User: Fold this.
Amino acid sequence: MKFKLLTCCVLSLFVLPVFVSVLISAEPVGTSKSFRGPVGLVVYSLRNQIKESGVVALDFAKEQGFVEVEIGLDNHYGLTQEQMKEALKQRGLKPIGAHAGYDFLLKQTDKAVEIANDLGVKYVGVAWAPHKKPLDEAQTLKIAEDFNTIGKRLKEKGIQFYYHNHGYEFYPYKNGETLFDLLVQKTDADCVKFEMDVMWTIFPGQDPVQLLKKYPDRWILMHLKDLAKGVEGNLSGGTDTKNDVALGTGQVDYPAVLKAAQEIGVKHYFIEDESSDVLKQIPQSLKYLSGIEF
Assistant:
């Protein structure tokens, strides 16, 4: 008995430190000693796979180590709301935020709240505001008014509204500012927050670091996406999906962007990959993020 006890004690001196060391060194997916995340996945990235294979396509997200996801609120890429909910639950994937249609949120807010509560999301946003191109001051003011309406209604139900920039908002306005600045300034700082899509920030020629610092209390979420080198952007809000490349291989200075985002307190980060090489690029992006230093 004494020999067995001694053996256990000796083994613990060697095994326990190694076990503890592994636990300590293991970083959550997509994070590093500098970049703490958390990093999730935009389920829209797997939209084609879900349409083709159903819920099994979400196995990929689990296999990559993701825990957090951003989903659709009124669109589940061929799945029903209940199927998406159950599929996420079975794979340990936690929906943090959800994108919805602009008109759906404005005209069917109660329904949106009902779905958000059922899916367990506390952030609900839109990624596109319908407008006649080019965006102008009058349209921007109307969008801001609608955002305030949506944001107030959702806030009353314990849900935070956010807007995901898409590139067309950066037309020059006044005094060196853009229509995006007007949108920020005309929306309620408490009821309307923002999700920076990094690619859709550099594509129209903006500096994501400066924008983060300019509105430090407004940015709460972030889409991690990179733009292929050599691609010239514009204010259209659209580009070929082949220009969506693995993080660290494109034009974005991610160490600088993530450092600024952490400093202002962005709460959740989501990789979004709209390319046809999504299953190849996402692992590359995660590997890149795990080596980020700043």
Confidence is low (pLDDT under 50) at residues 2-25. Residues 2-25 form the longest helix (24 residues). The beta strands are 39-42, 68-72, 94-99, 123-126, 160-164, 192-197, 219-224, 226-227, 244-245, 268-271. The CA atoms of residues 189 and 218 lie 7 Å apart.
